[in-house]
Amino acid sequence: MSKATLFDSRIKKYAYCKPPEICRDLGTSALGLSKEQVDAMRERYGKNSFQERKTDTTIQRLRRAFINPFHVILFILGIVSLVTDVFMASNFTRNATTALIIFSMIVISGIIRLIQELRAKSTAAQLDRLIHEKVTVRRNGELREIPGEELVVGDLVLFSAGDRVPADIRLTKVTDLFISQAAITGESAILEKSCRTLCYKEQEPITQLENLAFMATTVISGKGEGIVLAVGTDTLYGGFTKPDSEDKNAFQKGANSIAWVMIRFMAVLVPIVFLILGITGGKWLESFAFALSVAVGLMPEMLPMVITACLAKGSLAMGKKQTIIKDLNAMQSFGSMDVLCMDKTGTLTNESILLEYYMDILGNENTEVLDLAYLNSSYHSGVRNPIDNAILACKSMPGREIHYAKLLTEYQKEDEIPFDYTRKFVSTLVQDSTGNSHLIMKGDIAHILSRCSHVEYRGTRLPMEKDARQSVFSVVGEMLQDGMKVIAVARKHVGTRREITPDDEKDMTLVGYLSFFDAPKQTASESVTALKRLKVIPKILTGDQAAIALSVCRRVGISAEHILTGTQLDEMTDCELKKLVEETHVFAELTPGQKVRLVSALKENGHTVGFLGDGVNDIPALNEANVGISVDTAVDAAKDAADVVLLQKDLNVLEQGVLEGRKTFTNMLKYIKITASSNFGNIFSIICASAFLPFLPMTSIQILLLNLLYDTLCIVLPWDNVDEEEILSPRDWSGKTLKQFMLSFGPISSLFDIVTFLFLYYFLCPALCGGTTYLQLTDPSLKLQYAALFQTGWFLESMWTQVLILHFLRTAKIPFLQSRASAPVVSITLVGILAFTALTFTSGASLFGLTKLPLWYFAFLLLVAFFYMLLSSVTKYFYKNKYQELI
Ligand SMILES: Nc1ncnc2c1ncn2[C@@H]1O[C@H](COP(=O)(O)OP(=O)(O)OP(=O)(O)O)[C@@H](O)[C@H]1O
Ligand SMILES: [Mg+2]
């Protein structure tokens, strides 16, 4: 049975049981669990956390670090080499160096990955501390607050508006409980939940069961209490979260596919090398060992390590700038993001808004409007958003404290229909001291207006004029244009009713308006300019009025030539929308669903879309975007849905994030492209050399040594500098550029390899071995000397050029002069070149089949290096002109 079905049957059955039966089944009582029971339950069902996965033992971590396709292949090659070079070899030729080098490569890259894993875990823990809130439980008959992770199956838990449901729960008591399940179903609809025991109906999806509440969903309004049925990874939400986010990302998939291309490439070419060598030389065992080393040398075994190191390094750098990257892959999306959609209040504007005016329908100050709004805000149990906070703040106005306290005792709450972002208004029913009930509504002007049939002016109720909308906007229009948020307040007498339904929300009387000062953050306009400079197009997606959106856009510098409203959006086909979404930068009066539609239209157009939002209404869009960004002041559920959380108030960190993301991306591409092209060049040279030489162009150990040096260089590549020009525009990944890069630069290294071959074979070796070429030699020791000289020559040339190519291709500028690599890269390059060159002069050289070369060979090498640089520069120049970018 699949995990989902297992889950369904285990949890679902409780929806059809009465609470006492559930208590009996789970062994708990209405008083809650005792301490012993909590321990027993935790023992049995596990902890309520994702970090400490039950399976995440040291062994598991070791497994993830050490077992990947590259290591498996390396391991097999190591074993083969052990068998052929050690067990099957005669005493005289026995040599375990090859196998040792191969195994040490596995150990090095595995250890680095393990370190990265442990580091990533500590960032995840940091996030946990920031986001995980306390939950209220009833244990041993008393209420207490505990951290969410300590919750166990069987606990009785209480929650209210604004909370995230901390586990999967069967509700036992509710008061106007409305929940958004966007986090698990992606739907923006807000569902009413109940606690009644359901009758069994077949085929009902579990998320539709109204007496169950699921982990990670958000309580939009009301309160609830229930019994915990599942915790941690056993929850419905836990079933969704992938244990390893690694395979989810498009880039990761792309990178893996490159690895496979290289492996396939190797699988074809290595046997060719083996056959050519075997047929021409006749030494099959030696040819086999050589082909094996070529295979190891060509394998991009450092690829997974470089990618995780780049991502981890980027996210660490962002952490220092008070930005938490929850998912490592978000780092890369940050870099390739080319559209950033933002909502307005709290992200682009200050997190708190201020109540500025309260007025009647003609715009005169009127405290009754404020009183009504105050009652509405105090009594609705939904998530308090900035509007409510601003209204409730009026109770601290000097001299008004008593008035508002009296108001609350005079009017008692009877019922409510909570706020939701599709309806855009909230209704509360209050009863005055004489027993009369009043329905008070506040919310979006257009939505309220459409439910009003009358207006109230100076205590008189008058029928609404025909062009009411027009006259309302002539009163509030100016405020909207000044960037003020305006909402309407309406009321109705409903006799002595104690309950309301949406049917009652009509024939209302418009009483007046409230307007709020919603100023853009000081840094908003700066950040928008910075984003534009980085070629990220900013767009505003707001639920607020068009006029205020336009005003904010004007102030922060977003082009507001075209504007689309939610209603216009609904009339459009997907095709029309895809076209318009490109040229429009301001979208207003949107519902949460429309925000999602816009994000997905942009994604379909090929953009990498970021979404910055802070409210419950932004959660679906945060989920839909390639990179969801939230701020510290956002509701918990939004922070949870986001991939990135900005802890700082100003938006400038966004720019830093984009830059850091692009840096990360560039360093990854650098590794992939340079490795691919130098491997391509090498294999080409090896095939040429194998066909033409009567001996091996390099011994297996020498190839592996070179590989080791190159790999070590790659370990520090994530810390390399990146040219500023490289990060000015979004980095996109496409496999096409890899091929053209390989084909342009690979052959250059082969060209110099071949020049070196000819020089060594026809000039240097004969000059030092009696004036003739290899084939004319008869003395076996001279023959050996000839081969060793050749091999050392090529070993040095290969090493020099491979390291040089890295310095050359890492930048589009002139290396060393205009753009310098970071200190670690420069020092490893230098140390590597010096150490390996010096090695050929020591007595240990013979161990690797190397020998001393005359100093004048180094003059030749310098010459080769010089022309190599020259040719690369010229090619780079043409390449850049043709394709506009290098890496
Ligand atoms: N607490 C509330 N009470 C009544 N009406 C509200 C409340 N909150 C929001 N509204 C109404 O719903 C509309 C949309 O809400 P809001 O402005 O928060 O949406 P948004 O998409 O988050 O936009 P932004 O955050 O960019 O302003 C508001 O313009 C307002 O008219
Ligand atoms: Mg908002």
Could you describe the 3D structure shown?
The chain has 887 residues and is an alpha/beta fold. The chain folds into four domains: 163 residues, Calcium-transporting ATPase, cytoplasmic transduction domain A (Distorted Sandwich); 273 residues, Calcium-transporting ATPase, transmembrane domain; 154 residues, HAD superfamily/HAD-like (Rossmann fold, 3-Layer(aba) Sandwich), CATH 3.40.50; 164 residues, 3-Layer(aba) Sandwich (Calcium-transporting ATPase, cytoplasmic domain N). It is 52% helix and 15% strand. The strands form three sheets. An eight-stranded mixed sheet has the order 8-23-22-21-9-18-20-19, with helices on both faces. Helix 25 links the parallel strand 22 and strand 23. The longest helix is centred in the last third of the chain and has 41 residues. It is elongated and about 120 Å long. Bound molecules: adenosine-5'-triphosphate (ATP) and magnesium ion. Adenosine-5'-triphosphate binds next to helix 13, helix 15, strand 12 and strand 13.
Condensed summary:
Helices cover 52% and strands 15% of the residues.
Taken as a percent bin, the fraction of beta residues is: 15-25%
CATH topology of the largest domain: Calcium-transporting ATPase, transmembrane domain
Find the CATH superfamily of the largest domain.
Calcium-transporting ATPase, transmembrane domain
| Share of helix, binned | 40-55%
